[in-house]
From TrEMBL:
Superkingdom of the organism of origin: Bacteria
Alphabetical list of InterPro entries matching this protein: DUF485
Keyword tags: Membrane, Transmembrane, Transmembrane helix
Coiled coil stretches, renumbered: none
Species this protein is from: Streptomyces spongiae
Name the UniProt record assigns to this protein: DUF485 domain-containing protein
Length: 168
């Protein structure tokens, strides 16, 4: 089986080799605690200084290339298009609650039902909106970003493993 970048895949325990895709599959990152077959940790060659202050070392170049790729930019754009408006709305709602509580205490003290007043309802609304935004964020990540990010992760891992194997 081959990945999208044309490298062989399917034996690494990634999503290509499983019958059912698991977005929460957690494998060790390449070079982190993996053994090289002799029982010792795998060797990772250090990057080389090219003399112009820029370090060149296979994996670094791969990560920079991935960061500049259209797929990575799309994932980041989807993240920003959700998070920036969400933070703006939540921050506005929080600041309006604090400002209203300090500038209009008579409004916040107005009883709604028994001992429950407007301030208590607004405070509970803060908790409720926190949970709603968390749910919406997780749902958005699952539906719009997780699959693309996991594809990028696996492709990057395959490329870095290829570079590290060639450096030995």
């Amino acid at each position: 089986m081959q990945s999208r970048n044309g490298l062989p895949g399917g034996s690494g325990g990634g999503p290509e080799s499983s019958v059912e895709w698991d977005p929460w599959y957690d494998a060790l990152a390449s070079g982190w605690g993996e053994l090289d077959g002799t029982g010792a940790p795998a060797f990772v060659a250090p990057s080389v200084d090219r003399g112009d202050g820029v370090r060149s070392g296979g994996a670094v170049d791969i990560y920079r290339e991935v960061q500049r790729s259209a797929a990575f930019q799309e994932v980041r754009g989807r993240y920003r298009r959700f998070v920036v408006p969400g933070v703006a709305v939540f921050f506005t709602w929080y600041v309006s609650y604090v400002v209203t509580a300090t500038t209009a205490p008579e409004l916040m003290a107005r009883p709604v039902a028994g001992a429950v007043n407007v301030a208590m309802l607004a405070g509970l609304g803060q908790f409720l909106t926190t949970f709603l935004f968390t749910w919406a964020y997780v749902r958005h990540a699952r539906l719009r970003r997780d699959r693309a990010a996991l594809d990028l992760r696996w492709d990057t891992q395959e490329l870095t493993r290829g570079v590290r194997g060639a450096e030995r």
